[in-house]
Amino acid sequence: MIDTKNIYSELFDKQKANQFVVGNSSYNERIEKLKRLKHAIENTYKQDIREALYEDFKKPHLETDLTEIYPVINEINFVRKNLKSWLKKQWVDTPLALLGSSSFIMNEPKGVCLIISPWNYPINLTFGPLVSAIAAGNTVIIKPSEMTPNTSKLMAKIVSELFEESEIALVEGEVEVSQELLKLPFNHIFFTGSPAVGKIVMKAASEHLTSVTLELGGKSPTIIDDASHLEKTVKKIVYGKFTNAGQTCIAPDYVLLKSNLKSKFIEIFKAKVLEFYSENTENSESYCRIVNRKHFERLVSHIEDAKSNKSTIASGGTYNATDNFIEPTLVFNSPEDSKLMQEEIFGPILPLITYETIEEAVAYVNSREKPLALYIFSKNNKVIDFVLKNTRAGSTCVNHNLLQFLNHNLPFGGSNNSGIGNSHGYFGFLEFINQRSVLKQHTLGAVDLLTPPYTNWKQRLVDLTIKWF
Ligand code: NAD
């Protein structure tokens, strides 16, 4: 029997021994690595990536290009434009009391890092953080999800072709592999996944006081306030919700709708689903499948619950176990204590809840955990402002959904239950570095005059320092 425990600790030791070589790599060397990764994703393996994701859950090629390949290429391009300035020493002022010294901040790599990624956007959420880790000069062990085996296998091939394992390595396997890896004293763990597993990761990290980035999930609310652009609003929501069949961390989880808009919303919803996925969604080449039987059954149980409780299925509701197909489904009147309203849905089911006043909608949002994303559809700036100021969330997109993920000038992350830390651009880079402060003394300073024995004139000098400097 292979002693996997030893394999991982040997790999870890190899990377640990190599961390200063990688950490001291030049700007050009880091850019070279990123170019190699870009070429592999954009050219050499583009078709393989599309096919692997189609194999894993019938993800349409266009969706793969837009939501898996494009964000990683975009991240690489952004880093290439900015890395030079991020790697520079940042000189900062030194107070007069420390006259004779200068100070700077050095962005040093954290060291040996672990990236654990989920299955729902496997390329995007594995290689995206990897770009930040490479830019920061770390060595990395990656553990992708076992639920998209074809994509994980392909990523292992890409990583082993592009990098030495003493620098970047990918290990495939079940949850037990993560559990073994989590025992090792990594310098940083970047985890993307559910809040429940996030807690396990944080607990394991605490053993070694390893810093963590936790990109988690939860129920992301979508508030619709006015009728003026309902057609466009519902179109955007149907797109945001059913891309990747709702298996998106920032997909609208449920809609909070002004009560007078309900019947119009349902009518437009049905029309948009028809327009996007045709009469027979199951045959549509634009709609993917649920990733596996376990998740399919979890989602079907929500639909069956809705049929047996007081809920109304306003649209959709059919499914087919043969290939884990679930129709885009709209549910109205879901009881508050139903699983649908208690758990992150992470699938193509959209509950609709009505409200009378915006205060009521905000109170509903605030009665739950802080969401990863909160969406507001309104033309009224006062309402938008009110919602922004009176709720908490990782990110917000006003009058659209999902798009906030694509701007690398914005940090992407959650807050408390939806996450700790950020990814993307400079914010992602910061997660993988330690801002080391350096104070360099050039000449004798005032503090050197204050060593014991403490005399009266030294006391006066301290008094003056407190008063004036
Ligand atoms: P998950 O938490 O089940 O698994 C994520 C990773 O953790 C996988 O690689 C898995 O192998 C590993 N893992 C699972 N159980 C583990 C355990 N007990 N110990 C150690 N490792 C373990 O998540 P998932 O099902 O892959 O993804 C769905 C979740 O991820 C949703 O909650 C979604 O909202 C969230 N998510 C968040 C983001 C974000 O950027 N914030 C992005 C995508 C998905």
Low-confidence stretches: none
CATH first level of the largest domain: which class? Alpha Beta
Form type: globular
Per the CATH scheme, the topology name of the largest domain is Aldehyde Dehydrogenase, Chain A, domain 1
The number of helices is 16
Q: What amount of the residues lies in strands?
A: 15-25%
**How far from one another are the termini?**
67 Å
Average of pLDDT: 96
The side-by-side strand order for the widest beta sheet comes to 10-13-14-9-8-15-16
**CATH architecture descriptor name of the largest domain:** 3-Layer(aba) Sandwich
Name of the CATH homologous superfamily of the largest domain: Aldehyde Dehydrogenase, Chain A, domain 1
What would you say about this model in short?
With 469 residues, this protein is α/β, with parallel strands linked by helices. Helices cover 45% and strands 18% of the residues.
Task: Describe it.
There is one protein chain. The protein has 16 helices and 18 strands. With 469 residues, the chain is α/β, with parallel strands linked by helices. It has a seven-stranded mixed beta sheet, sandwiched between helices. It has a six-stranded mixed beta sheet with strand order 5-4-3-6-7-17, sandwiched between helices. The longest helix has 27 residues, at 61-87.
Question: Features of this protein?
Answer:
binds nicotinamide-adenine-dinucleotide; single chain; 18% strand; 469 residues; Aldehyde Dehydrogenase, Chain A, domain 2; alpha/beta; globular; six-stranded mixed beta sheet; 16 helices; Aldehyde Dehydrogenase, Chain A, domain 1; 45% helix; seven-stranded mixed beta sheet
